[in-house]
Amino acid sequence: MQVTLKKGAKVAGTIAVLKNPITWIVAGILLLLTSIFGLALFISISLGGDSTFDSGITGDGAGGTAQVSAEVLRYEPLVTEYAKKYGVEQYVQLLLAKMMRETGGRLPDVMQSSESIGLPPNSITDPEESIDVGVKYFAKIIKKAKGDIKLSLQSYNFGAGFIDYANKRGGYSKEVAIEFSRMMAAEMGWDSYGDVNYVDHVLRYYNAENDSVVVKGDGTQIFNVEEVHKIMKQYLGRPYVWGGRTPAAGGFDCSGLMEYAFRQVGIDMTGTAQAQYDKTKPVPEEQIKPGDLVFFSTYKPGPSHVGMYVGNGKFINSNDNGLEYSSVEEWKKQYPFLGFRRIQ
């Protein structure tokens, strides 16, 4: 009987507490705090792990513009979609440049993503799947590399293990890439491993905002230098095409680029590099200006390569690497230099 009375007292006490409004207010506050904490924990978990929404990505150098073919540009909406999905939308243009290097947009596995998920090359046959897998893998790499574009690009080619290897040696450099390639080739018993020039090959299709070439004429050329440069610049990254004289060819050869661009401003530069050499007058190197042409002897004696000087030791030209800016001094080391010449 005594036990029964004690239980009845406890029940009565419990009912009294539940009837108290303050009890319900306190319980409501606790429930609200628990819900907020649970939601915060869910978001934290969802955005953690391998997700690239993490603030570890700096985005430095991600504001450039891709100079790529129409075959690649058709995939820009899909690249943008998946870049947003994986939190790397600031790198859309860089991803397009990478696609240009990988396939030029001409193969089903447009980003050559198969190997990143352990499949043989070109196993992926759906371009959208290739973009999904490729962007996801790039997002993982760029996050681990803390936004270092060159380190990320080389790691996309070599594999994520290159990041730790490079960071222990002061970060990315061509020399470190060569060392890693030789080490991996020896371990695998292969003749070579990866592409040690992968960074250069991708970035030639990508003009970073802080590295874009601005050409200013002084008004003394017989044509508008800025206008001619603008015409040529829009085709940066297009492949070298022997005999290419117009954009319809898909690319240009060296003299074809000059012929096409100057025709747009009313100047006839029809012909080969030799013909263009003959149409121009020599200029002493100390008097060169943007808009002057630069000539080299490459595959045969005499003028066989031509480009337009844009200042700061660079010239724009179409060569085996595609349409790009090149260093005059670097070319002098490789080919006989035939001088600068001016259109009269």
UniProtKB/TrEMBL annotation:
GO molecular function: cysteine-type peptidase activity
Keyword list, A-Z: Hydrolase, Membrane, Protease, Thiol protease, Transmembrane, Transmembrane helix
Protease in keyword set: yes
Residue span(s) of domain NlpC/P60: 222-344
Keyword Iron: no
BP GO annotations: proteolysis
InterPro entries assigned to the protein according to its UniProt record, in alphabetical order: CwlT-like_lysozyme (IPR047194), Lysozyme-like_dom_sf (IPR023346), NLP_P60_dom (IPR000064), Papain-like_cys_pep_sf (IPR038765), Peptidase_C40 (IPR051202)
Classification via Gene3D superfamilies: 1.10.530.10, endopeptidase domain like (from Nostoc punctiforme)
Pfam families: Lysozyme_like, NLPC_P60
Tree of life domain: Bacteria
Transmembrane segments: 21-45
Family per similarity comment: Belongs to the peptidase C40 family.
Name of the protein in its database record: Endopeptidase
Organism from which the protein derives: Bacillus salipaludis
